[in-house]
Amino acid sequence: MTVTPLALLSAVCRPHEPALLAYINNRLQPTEWRRCDQLARRVWEYALAHADMSAPGWDTDAGLPVWLAAAARTVIRRHLTPGPDPAAVDWAALEQQLGRAHTWPPHWGRLLAAAGQAALLAQAAEDLHAMPSSMAA
């Protein structure tokens, strides 16, 4: 029996879809609930591109695997944070330099939204330089 990529993807997504939709809606204002399906698609796209799906563990607050909950938090944060056009932000470069967005200090996300990528990189360099060398490693 041959398993197609679409069948495999469906087998991964289907069991988690209701909990993912509930998690997203729980973090949106009622006026934003209509965007839930679109955000769920973006979560799956982000997870497939960036998540370490081999990471074991269950996020009990989200009711999702750790890797999917982290992807959902990142997508929701990007959706709720007004700022530059997401297409104008080079997320791959930022995450390569600063690590996964869900691990960033909150003020980095606010700065990215308010002032853009260059301002974030300057602040991150300043923050990391000020960090004790034992914490930076």
Gist of the model:
By secondary structure, the protein is mainly α.
Structure annotation, total helices: 8
- Give the ordered list of helices and strands: HHHEEHHHHH
Radius of gyration, in angstroms, nearest whole number: 17 Å
Strand count, sense and closure of the main sheet? 2 strands, antiparallel
Given as residue ranges, the uncertain stretches (5+ residues, pLDDT < 50) are none
Numbering strands along the chain, what is their spatial order in the largest sheet? 1-2
How many β strands by DSSP?
Answer: 2
Q: Which strand-content bin applies to the residues?
A: under 5%
Can you tell me the overall shape?
Answer: globular
Structural class by secondary-structure content = mainly alpha
Explain what the structure shows.
Helix 2 (17-26) crosses helix 3 (36-50). The chain is 62% helix and 3% strand. A two-stranded antiparallel ribbon has the order 1-2. It starts with a helix and ends with a helix. The longest helix is centred in the N-terminal third of the chain and has 15 residues, at 36-50. The chain contains eight helices and two strands. It is globular. It is mostly helical and 137 residues long. A hairpin with a 4-residue loop joins strand 1 (58-59) and strand 2 (64-65).
